[in-house]
Every structure is written in C-alpha cells, then in structure tokens.
Design a protein that fits this description.
The structure holds two protein chains of two kinds.
Chain A lengths: L2 H30 L6 H24 L6 H4 L3 H20 L2 H18 L1
Chain B lengths: L3 H11 L1 H20 L4 H11 L2 H12 L3 H12 L1 H9 L8 H8 L4 H12 L6 H25 L6 H20 L5 H20 L4 H19 L1
Helix pairs in contact in B: 1-9, 2-3, 2-4, 2-9, 2-10, 3-9, 4-5, 6-8, 8-9, 8-10, 11-12
The chains are: A mainly alpha, B mainly alpha.
C-alpha cells in the first residue's frame, strides 16, 4: 500500500475508533435505559467528570513532553502555569466571578514569567 | 424564557476561550500535518475525525516515521478518554433526536466537554443540547479553519501570544472546578484529578486521565456511602 493510502487508513481507523468511544455510552444507555435511572452510576460519572476536568488542567500544564511530572515542574513556564491555576482557583472560589478569575490567573502567569 | 437559539448563542459565548485557544492550537496542528507528510485534505480529515490535538500530534509524529500501527494505537489510547466523557455528559443533554445527537457527539473533545459539563450538570439550562451545540460551533469550525491556516501559512510570529492563549485553557477550566463549591465532593474530585492524573499518567502512559477519574470516582462514592 502507498504511503498516502496508509495515512488515510490511520486517519479513518483512528477517527472511527474515536467516534465509537464518543457514541458507545449513548448506544449502551439506549439498550439498558437511561443512566439517570441508576442514581449511583450517574453519581460515579459525575465524580469522574470533575476528576477528568482536574486531570485536563494538570495534563495541559505538565502532561506534555517526555519528561516526568517532577522534571516538568522545574520549568519556569510550568511553575508560572501552576501558580496561575492556583490564583484562578482562589479568586473563583472567593469571588464566584469567572472572567475576573481568568484575568487574575493570566495576569499572575505573565507576572511570574517576568520575575523568573 | 430562554429559546434554543439563545442557548446556542450562550454556548458559543461560553466557548470563547476555547475558540481563541483552538485558533492557535490547531494552526500548530496544521503546520505539523504539513511537515509530517499529510496533504491538506488529510490534515482536515484528521481534525474532523480525530478532533483531539494531543492525539493528532502523536499520530502525525509516528506517521512521519511510517509507524502506521503505532499511530493508530496512539489515537485510540489517547482518545479512549472520550468514552468516560461521553458517559458523563450524555445523560444531561436532554433527549435530542438520534440524528442530531450522534453527529454532535463527534464534536466532543476535552475542551467542549469541560465547557459544557458543569453547565448542563448544574441544571441551569432549559436547553442543554443546543447549549452543547453552541459550544461545539465555537470550537469545531475553528479547529478546521486553524488546521487549514496552519497548513497553508507559516503562522509563527507571536509565540508569546500563543503561549498566553494555551495557558488560557487550563486557567479557564480551573474556574469550573471552583464553581463546584459548595459541593465539597465535586470540588475534591476535581482537585484529586488535578494532583493525581500526572502521577498516574507517568505510571500508565495514555490512560492516566481515565484511570485516575475512575479511581477518584469510586473512592468518593465509597466515602459517600460511609457518610
């Protein structure tokens, strides 16, 4: 098979699998009844969802590259990002204002980068 | 009373940080596609079908070395997390017709999930599915346009701005965790996910997000039962 054909194969198989992951729960709910019918299952997914959001935040800050998390934490940009996330979290918790929290976090990020 | 159209607009507005970030992130994906040997239709098809920048970067790098099977596996492993995200979010999207829901689920990504889930779970929306569509409309076309621009143009002039916008996403998603307050268990789930995911990812590359989320969820469910 040519290189171009192999690239298409990767895209189609990878894309097909990704789509399957996206629709599989819905297909299962249709067979077994809605997840809402099972309060504990829904609760499990609620907790998992918040853990996923926390995980996405961490992964986008320190999850890239080949270095270990501890090694990545030594990098100034990662340190600035961690501080920005911390500032955002505290401001959001105290003020309950989303835009203000984001701006405070981004300002903290730039400030730390300037200082480091 | 909110209309479905207003819910779509609200979703697009909420997705603005995602739109901004994607406009830079997928320019980088497009540039990587070109240097990795993909043609423009392939780059666009990959963004449309895979729709996950980390999986795309990994696969493009592997395809450049003609490692076809590892490239397929990389996409599958990285995108396996969508299973958990879809399981979490679909019960809260209301009851849209299947012909609308199934195509819309193709646009589920980490960013569209994280923007939509806290809103729909909170029950504050009269039309959760149109809201989700609005979030996707802010993200998906931007990703496609960004891929095309990145493929066709050398857009690398403002690294500080790219850096700032890529920081925007984690900062923005942090506000969703904080908004879980006063529900301390959801807050705890978010924080545990934040601290444990990198560690578990280092132990089990590719599955850190999913494994951590499930472990945290089971832990909190057990804690809830004991309380």
């Amino acid at each position: 098979m040519s290189q171009q054909a192999m690239i298409w194969l990767v895209i189609l198989v990878g894309g097909g699998a990704s789509y399957l992951f996206r629709i599989l729960p819905q297909l299962i709910w249709q067979q077994t009844g809605p997840a809402a019918a099972n309060a504990r299952l829904l609760r499990l997914f609620d907790y998992a969802a918040y853990a996923v959001i926390g995980g996405i935040v961490a992964s986008s800050l320190i999850g890239n590259g080949d270095a270990s998390p501890l090694e990545r934490l030594q990098e100034p940009r990662v340190q600035a990002g961690m501080l920005a996330v911390g500032v955002t979290f505290m401001v959001a918790l105290l003020s309950r204002r989303q835009i203000l929290s984001v701006l405070a976090g981004l300002a903290a990020y730039q400030l730390v980068l300037l200082l480091l | 009373m909110e209309t479905p159209g207003q819910a779509v607009l609200k979703g697009m507005r909420d997705a603005l940080p995602v739109t901004l970030t994607f406009s830079f992130l997928f320019v980088a994906v497009g540039a990587a596609s070109q240097s990795g040997g993909l043609n423009l239709p392939q780059g666009l098809a990959m963004t449309a079908l895979v729709f996950a920048a980390p999986a795309q970067f990994a696969a493009i790098e592997l395809m450049a070395g003609q490692a076809w099977l590892p490239a397929m596996l990389a996409i599958m492993v990285i995108n396996f997390r969508f299973l958990l995200m879809a399981a979490s979010i679909t019960p809260y999207l209301g009851a849209p017709p299947r012909r609308a829901l199934f195509p819309a689920l193709q646009m589920l990504s980490a960013s569209t999930f994280a923007t939509t889930f806290p809103r729909v779970r909170g029950g504050e929306l009269a039309y959760p599915f149109p809201f989700y569509l609005g979030v996707c409309l802010g993200a998906f076309p931007t990703a496609l346009a960004g891929t095309a621009v990145g493929y066709l143009v050398q857009a690398d002039n403002m690294p500080w701005l790219q850096d700032l916008l890529i920081t925007l996403l984690p900062v923005y998603f942090t506000t969703f965790i904080a908004r879980a307050w006063p529900n301390t268990r959801f807050l705890m789930a978010g924080l545990l996910g934040f601290f444990l995911t990198p560690l578990v990812s280092a132990l089990v590359p590719g599955f850190g997000l999913v494994i951590t989320a499930l472990l945290v969820a089971v832990f909190l469910l057990v804690l809830e039962r004991r309380a």
